[in-house]
Amino acid sequence: MRSFVWCTAMISFAALDAGAQQADQLQQLQQQLQQLKQQYADTTHEFEQRIAALEQQLEMQKTAAEKPKKVPPVPVLELVAEKAAKKAVDDV
Question: What does pTM read for this prediction?
Fold first, then answer.
């Protein structure tokens, strides 16, 4: 009878220990999962920022390439030429 009680007690302790180990493993897995989710969110956010910055840079370069070079209109060039000629005549 004593050995039966002793065996029952040992099995009970083993079952309690196994349950505690399972709970500990479950908690560790939950922590790992949470860490992975956080890393994923951080990395995704970083990539979204980099993509947005590159898209903005590309758009700025595209806009700059499409802008025609500003050439003064002909009347402005004529005025500049007249002023230069007048100054040359005045200097002589």
Answer: 0.47
